[in-house]
Amino acid sequence: MTMTERPPRTAPAGPSVGRPIDRVDGPAKTTGAARYSAEYPYPDLTHAALTHATIARGRITGIDTAEADAVPGVLAVITHRNAPAMRPAPSFSMLDLSTFASGTSVNYLGTDEVHWNGQPMAVVVAETRDAALRAAALVRLSYEELPATVDFAGAEKDARPQKNSALQSGGATKGDAEAALAAAPVSVDLRFTTPPHHHNAIEPHSTTAAWDGDRLTVHDGTQNISWLRRHLALRFGVRAQNIRVIAPYVGGAFGGKTMVWAGTLLTVLAARVTGRPVRMMLTREGVYRTVGGRTPSTQRVALGAGRNGRLTALIHTSVTQVGRVGGGPEQVTSQSRHLYDVPNILLQQNLTELDALSNTVMRAPGESIGTFALETAVDELAGELGLDPIEFRMRNEPERNPIDGKRFAHRMLREAYALGAERFGWADRTPRPGSMRDGRWLVGMGVASAYHPSWQFAANVTVRLSADGRVLVRCGFHEMGMGGATAQAQIAADALGVPFEAVRVEYGDSTLPTGPGAGGSGQTASVAASLLTACDKLKGSVLALAGRSRESPLRGRRSSTLEARDGGLWTGPAGESYATILARAGRDSVEAAVGSDTRLGAMTGQLRFMSKFMLDRRRWVKAACGAQFCEVRVDPVTGEVRVSRWTGVFDVGTVINAKTAASQLRGGIVMGIGMALTEETLVDPRSGRIMNPGLAEYHVPVHADIPPLDVHYLDEPDPTMPLGLIGVGEVGITGAAAAIANAVHHATGRRVRDLPITLDKLL
Ligand code: MOS
Predict the structure, then answer these.
(1) Are 252 and 287 in contact (CB under 8 A)?
(2) Ligand 1 neighbour 255 (Cβ under 6 A)
(3) Which has the closest alpha carbon to 314: 344, 348, 350, 349?
(4) Higher pLDDT, 756 or 577
(5) Is residue 498 included in any domain, yes or no?
(6) Per-residue DSSP letter, 364
(7) Are residues 582 and 692 in the same domain?
(8) What are phi and psi of 594, to 5 degrees?
(9) 553 shares a domain with 666
(10) Domain end: 567, 602, 637, which one?
């Protein structure tokens, strides 16, 4: 089967939904016509660059800008001595979710305090980027240094339990897991470590900012236009309505562009100081120094089972890092609440505070590294029991959510393993480690479960139908390369019964109805929910128009009877079409809206959405899941690991676009391969300085590292989600590192529990 052929579907597929349609933004990107945030021309444009602190904690005692000022083309060197005050970062409030957007609590250039090694302490503005970068490197800072805690390994002992919040819990207990573990005839009790990771989007964080009096235009590759706009309004003391954020193209993000980081704020500040438009494109090093990454972790996973292969105890605890100036818990034990039917469970996440930049969300924050530990431990226990790791998992597959007995909205993990095993050829595996060879290569096969919760956010959407049959969907959502606009055009086309080509989607601009953030794999479902409602409203309006005319055969029919499947209105039942109805009514267009962007409308919309969302979460456990199958080849002499084959089968509900969904899942797996084998941010334990801030020394996988990835989905709708769709952005990375670690063990007999699995650990 190729990726465009799929098993028969029960999803409400239409002529457009489900098809592998090429991305609508593809031509603009491949021809270079797409404009990214650092590519907007402005007359009088200036360029900015940052000077970073080189100590982890202390105060600035001296700033010498003489050499920097002398660089030709330099217009300003802005430091805490001459910068206008920005308002402080807001503290978090459930009433205004944009308060979540503060990357750190530091008031940049409003203080002489240094909070991490790399904090921006000066901004240089110049006529060219080269001049700005050169001058920024010539700003001399002297410090009074204070003692700092920068070594995660050393700070692990000071970790405190994470508190529960409305949206995230720090732990859970059921039964007595420690006692059950002690009593279990077969058990494992293991410690895992994972290093910090960074996002490494192709497009480094970039901002172009232009003030016009009290009005501000910002081009910024953000994952959350509305949070960014609100945050800038708060920090610069202007009305949000006076700020326009433009972000039609985002060159990858993976979570790193969710919060508002120093580069964005300081570009806006520099534009205010100089009175000219300012562009700042961070260097790759600048991204590492000023944008948070994934936390390092230590994890304990202990499992106990009876000789019948039924789990009796599951303990999963973790320590992760936050910065003293920000960052948050990562839900490392999240999947351990849901994956196994165990009578005794103990989960606890702990946090330790460092004098370091805030950690932040990165593709499947929590589950990416949490599944590594859990799914490796499960493999180890299966080995102890002498059971096939898939068979062991199937014996412990729950009917209801293990921790609280809630229903699963959707759960097809058994089917995912069955299809995956068949496609991958799992039956050819001989169980004994080291028993499979291909010439000099040791061959290993491993599996692991993927799991990622499904999220939904509020989204305002308008849909307009013109008399010529064109449809315009408007929503300020984000296109980071996932195919979001294409998917929404497919959904609108089927909902209205028009051809895909008739639909245009506008996104990526704060002048549009407020969209959801692109996060938590929730954007497509969030926009779809409102879009479907808007399309229903629109059809209702068209029918009402038709009903006013005695000649219309549609008189008296309800919109719900006019499904796209029936040919919709475009081809027109009884000879009617949108065009004839609108023409008869003398209308150029009809529009329908969901949600409102007035102050009151936004507030009530958010409240209504949140109460529905929380109610839904009390009833259902919603998630994507899947089965990852990996084959590795290990060179017994050098310890080199090559991933040679991959099959991933995913339960992601209805697939809207067969091509873009598969790409998202593949991308997740590629990132999982990086996490397993090469990616590691190295922090000097004495100074807290990141020592490999760039692609030369932080190794992401390249093409030669990736075999063809065989990706499939089960394509059964989740009945609780709009159109039955579950997000696909993050589940692909989960379980991937464990599948590789398990395959490496199968090949070599060696267990590596500390990522990445570099060759030195296998020698
Ligand atoms: Mo993500 S870490 O939800 O971009």
Answers:
(1) no
(2) yes
(3) 344
(4) 756
(5) yes
(6) S
(7) no
(8) -120, 125
(9) no
(10) 602
517 within ligand 1 shell (Cβ under 6 A): no
Q: Let me know whether 626 and 750 are in one domain.
A: yes
Confidence of residue 665 (pLDDT cuts 50, 70, 90): very high
Name the DSSP class of 549: S
For ligand 1, the distance from its centroid to the CA atom of residue 222, given in whole angstroms, is: 12
* Residues 643 and 741 both lie in one domain: yes
Q: Is the CB of 361 under 6 A from ligand 1?
A: yes
Q: Compute CA distances 138 → 36, 61, 132, 228, whole Å.
A: 29, 17, 10, 31
Whether 544 and 674 map to the same domain: the answer is no
For ligand 1, atom 4, name the residue with the nearest CA.
Answer: 255
Contact indicator for 579, 568 with CB cutoff of 8 Å: no
List the catalytic residue out of 367, 576, 716, 730.
730
Which of 602, 631, 648 terminates a domain? The answer is: 602
254 lines ligand 1 (CB under 6 A): yes
Q: Indicate if 656 and 706 belong to the same structural domain.
A: yes
How many domains does the structure of the chain reveal?
2
Task: Report CA-CA distances (Å) from 346 to 27, 134, 178.
Answer: 51, 54, 8
| CB 362 less than 6 A from any atom of ligand 1 | yes
Residue 557 counted as domain residue? yes
Torsion angle of the four alpha carbons 132, 133, 138, 140, in this order, in degrees rounded to the nearest 10: 90
For residue 498, what is the domain's CATH number? 3.30.365.10
Could you tell me the two tokens for 525?
């479902």
Express each pLDDT in 624-646 by its tens digit. 999 999 999 999 999 999 999 99
Are 592 and 713 members of one domain?
no
Q: Is 730 a catalytic residue?
A: yes
Question: Ligand 1: does its nearest atom lie under 6 Å from the Cβ of 293?
Answer: no
In the reported structure, the alpha carbon of residue 256 is separated from the centroid of ligand 1 by a whole-number distance in angstroms of 8
Do 638 and 598 belong to one domain? Answer: no
* pLDDT the model gives residue 569: 54
Asked if residue 471 lies in contact with residue 492, where contact means CB atoms within 8 angstroms, the answer is yes
Q: Ligand 1, closest atom to CA 519?
A: 3
Is 361 strand, coil or helix? coil
Of the pLDDT bands very low, low, confident and very high (cuts 50, 70, 90), residue 91 is confident
Q: Does residue 291 sit within a domain?
A: no
Averaged pLDDT for residues 48-69: 98
Instruction: State how far the Cα of 504 lies from the Cα of 276, in Å rounded to an integer.
Output: 35
The 8-class DSSP code of residue 709 comes to: E
pLDDT reported for residue 561: 56
Nearest ligand 1 atom to alpha carbon 520: 3
The whole domain housing 499 covers 457-602
DSSP line for 206-265: EEEEEEETTEEEEEE--S-HHHHHHHHHHHHT--GGGEEEE-S-----TTTTSSB-HHHH
User: Does 653 map to a domain?
Assistant: yes
